[in-house]
Batch of 2 targets.
Target 1
Amino acid sequence: KAGVTQTPRYLIKTRGQQVTLSCSPISGHRSVSWYQQTPGQGLQFLFEYFSETQRNKGNFPGRFSGRQFSNSRSEMNVSTLELGDSALYLCASSSGGYTDTQYFGPGTRLTVL
Amino acid sequence: DAKTTQPPSMDCAEGRAANLPCNHSTISGNEYVYWYRQIHSQGPQYIIHGLKNNETNEMASLIITEDRKSSTLILPHATLRDTAVYYCIVRPANNAGGTSYGKLTFGQGTILTVHP
């Protein structure tokens, strides 16, 4: 099976812009979770989607949003970018079942100038 | 989710077993122990998980103490490619409630350096 794919792999934006990142889960997986990784805060959970519904949300401002499509592909959007949003954004997919092991993609490296 | 404590760094000689400890003294009955590793700037890689029995797969073995308050990840024959940050994570099964869906709480992990 193909793994989790994320596009684009690298992105450079300027403050105030918005950005959309994409994640394609492993075939058959219905849950997609998003994480932000920075040197200062480490890996932090953003939100999780299952069957197009957000089931869980981390402690991030409303500028961070996401959605999931009927084919389980997911996008996350960050509006009004700030310098502090520079990070590696990771998505993980899982079955969404009782003990769902999450498998991570390679990440999107976002740089905000 | 239960908090975990790991040593910040460890060294291991290539070819030897690497034993990475994790303390999770506040673990509750429905919480699983997961191990992931992250090689520099790549996505975390799932290694193994368990509830109370010892587990083994092609990558590693997981030894959980009888009281479940600590565990050890064992890489039987470490190679240079095993140099990474190793994360021990405790989380409940999904039916434990809304706060558990999809969420892995990562600590600082253990930086394992394998030397030639």
Target 2
Amino acid sequence: GQNIDQPTEMTATEGAIVQINCTYQTSGFNGLFWYQQHAGEAPTFLSYNVLDGLEEKGRFSSFLSRSKGYSYLLLKELQMKDSASYLCAVRSRGGATNKLIFGTGTLLAVQP
Amino acid sequence: DTGVSQDPRHKITKRGQNVTFRCDPISEHNRLYWYRQTLGQGPEFLTYFQNEAQLEKSRLLSDRFSAERPKGSFSTLEIQRTEQGDSAMYLCASGSRDSISYEQYFGPGTRLTVT
């Protein structure tokens, strides 16, 4: 089966650091993606991990542990514009599609 | 702008009517995906095209749904005899086989409301 879990909501303060966790159980694994989605808009790509470890990109970092089926997205120096839903998605191995299986998303509210 | 575009952005229809949505992917992308997203949920995979070939369809895609990509460029998604349960955001995404990560770029979506 396919199961991706992430917290439904989180709240953080402007300027702070927040970590959004994602655990997954999928029939195969071929990479994990994080997307940001503002209300009413399309998801936009943030990061991609296929090997264990940390990938850093500016204020955003993403970590992966394949043995634990675990990833997190770290947002530093939070800004009000970071208020959005953050989607964890796994690309399953097998088949030609490379389709993504998404979690329900974590709605992050950044407060002044 | 060379991003993914979708048309229309919003569609309100009465139950039982047919609707058709269009997606124009990024021009050099040969991979095209359709997803459906309901409020508070992540996108769910519906179907995938590689060039003009439809290679996979989700079980979510009932017989009332059909998708085409006739020339390997734009794609259409048609829903026949719409039901209230079809109300959702329909997202199109495209990607390039040259991308190591197979990253997908999403369009702005078509929000369907069935009354």
